[in-house]
C-alpha cells in the first residue's frame, strides 16, 4: 500500500499526505438510484461519448468530508453485486454532465462508479477559468490525492463493491490518475486518456499494477515522443502496460467522438474495447 505522499513531476507541493477520515462501514443504501446493466457489444461505444447520453441516473454525493463544497456523482448498477468499482476524474473544466453520463455508462457495464469532483463543485466556462481551476488543484496536490483516497474509501465501504477499485481520467484527469497511481491509497487499475506523463523508471516503479493509456498522434500534450518515453520507462520499471497512439485524431478525441465521427469512431471504439478488456482483467 502506498502509505505516504511521494513527490512526482505532477505534484507542485511537497507535503506529507494528511490522513482522511474513514466513512461508515457501509455507505450504500437501498435508496440509491440504480442503472440497468446493459453492456455494450463489441461494435458499440458507450452512449455518452457519441453524444447519446440520456437523463442522469445517479446521484450527487459529498464523499470528501473535509470539503463541504465537494460534489461528486455516484452511479450504481442494478442488483446486489458485489461489483468492481471505478473512480473517474474529470477534465480541466470540472465535473460536467458528459462525465456524469460516462459514469452512468460504466454503471451499465457493471461498475459502481464515482465521478470525482476536484474543484469543490466549480466549473470552468472558458479557457482562462479552466486554467485557473487546474492550477489551483495542481498547487495543492496533497488535497487532490486525499480527495481521491476518500473516493476509494467511499467505494470500498459499500457492501455492493468487491473491494477492487480502478481510477481513470482524461487530460488533466489523466495526469491526475497517474499521480494517484503513484501517491494514493492502493488500488488495482490506472487508465490514462492523454494526460501528463512521466519518464522516470524509478518513480514509475512505485505503481503496482498494469497501466492503460490511450493517446493521439496529432496531440502535443502529451506528444507522441512523450508517450513513447513513458512506455519505455514503464517497461524499464517492469510495469505491464497497454498503451496505444491513434493516428489521425487529436487531443480530447475519445470523450467527444461525436464531434468528428468520421475520424474518431474507429479509434474510439478500439480504445473502448481495449479499456473494457483492461478493466475486466484488472478488477475481476
The coarse silhouette is globular
The largest pleated sheet is described as: 9 strands, mixed
CATH superfamily: Alpha/Beta hydrolase fold, catalytic domain
- Order of H and E elements: EEEEHEHHEHEHEHEH
Which fold name is given in CATH as the topology? Rossmann fold
Number of helices: 7
Number of strands: 9
Give the overall average pLDDT: 90
> In angstroms, what is the radius of gyration?
17 Å
CATH class: Alpha Beta
End-to-end C-alpha gap: 19 Å
Identify low-pLDDT runs.
Answer: 1-27
Estimated helix fraction? 25-40%
Summarize the structure.
The protein has helices spanning 97-108, 127-138, 141-156, 172-183, 201-204, 224-236, 261-283; strands at residues 34-35, 59-61, 72-77, 83-89, 112-115, 161-170, 189-193, 211-216, 241-246. It is of the alpha/beta class.
Helix and strand topology:
Layout: E1 34-35, E2 59-61, E3 72-77, E4 83-89, H1 97-108, E5 112-115, H2 127-138, H3 141-156, E6 161-170, H4 172-183, E7 189-193, H5 201-204, E8 211-216, H6 224-236, E9 241-246, H7 261-283
Parallel strand pairs: 1-3, 4-5, 4-6, 6-7, 7-8, 8-9
Antiparallel strand pairs: 2-3, 3-5
Question: Mind explaining what this structure looks like?
Answer:
It is a single chain. This protein has 284 residues and is an alpha/beta fold. It has a single domain (34-283), classed as Rossmann fold. 32% of the residues lie in helices and 17% in strands. It contains seven helices and nine strands; from the N terminus they run E-E-E-E-H-E-H-H-E-H-E-H-E-H-E-H. It is globular. The two termini are 19 Å apart. Residues 1-27 have low confidence and may be disordered.
Amino acid at each position: 500500500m502506498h502509505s505516504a505522499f511521494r513527490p512526482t513531476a505532477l505534484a507542485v507541493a511537497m507535503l506529507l499526505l494528511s490522513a482522511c477520515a474513514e466513512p461508515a462501514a457501509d455507505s450504500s443504501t437501498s435508496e440509491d438510484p440504480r442503472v440497468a446493466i446493459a453492456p455494450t457489444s463489441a461494435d458499440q461505444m458507450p452512449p455518452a461519448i457519441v453524444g447519446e447520453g440520456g437523463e442522469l441516473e445517479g446521484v450527487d454525493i459529498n464523499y470528501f468530508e473535509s470539503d463541504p463544497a465537494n460534489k461528486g456523482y455516484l452511479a450504481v448498477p442494478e442488483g446486489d453485486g458485489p461489483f468492481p468499482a471505478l473512480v473517474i476524474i474529470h477534465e480541466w473544466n470540472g465535473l460536467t454532465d458528459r462525465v456524469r453520463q460516462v459514469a452512468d455508462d460504466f454503471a451499465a457495464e457493471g461498475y459502481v462508479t464515482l465521478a470525482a469532483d476536484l474543484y469543490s463543485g466549480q466549473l470552468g466556462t472558458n479557457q482562462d477559468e479552466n486554467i485557473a481551476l487546474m492550477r489551483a488543484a495542481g498547487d495543492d496536490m496533497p488535497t487532490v490525492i486525499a480527495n481521491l483516497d476518500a473516493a476509494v474509501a467511499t467505494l470500498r465501504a459499500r457492501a455492493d463493491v468487491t473491494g477492487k477499485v480502478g481510477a481513470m481520467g482524461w487530460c488533466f484527469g489523466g495526469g491526475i490518475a497517474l499521480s494517484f497511481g503513484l501517491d494514493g491509497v492502493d488500488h488495482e487499475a490506472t487508465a490514462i486518456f492523454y494526460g501528463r506523463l512521466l519518464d522516470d523508471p524509478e518513480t514509475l516503479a512505485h505503481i503496482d499494477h498494469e497501466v492503460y493509456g490511450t493517446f493521439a498522434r496529432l496531440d502535443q500534450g502529451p506528444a507522441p515522443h512523450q508517450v513513447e518515453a513513458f512506455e519505455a520507462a514503464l517497461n524499464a520499471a517492469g510495469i505491464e502496460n497497454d498503451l496505444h497512439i491513434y493516428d489521425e485524431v487529436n487531443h480530447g478525441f475519445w470523450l467527444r467522438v461525436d464531434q468528428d465521427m468520421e475520424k474518431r469512431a474507429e479509434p474510439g471504439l478500439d480504445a473502448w474495447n481495449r479499456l473494457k478488456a483492461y478493466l475486466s482483467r484488472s478488477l475481476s
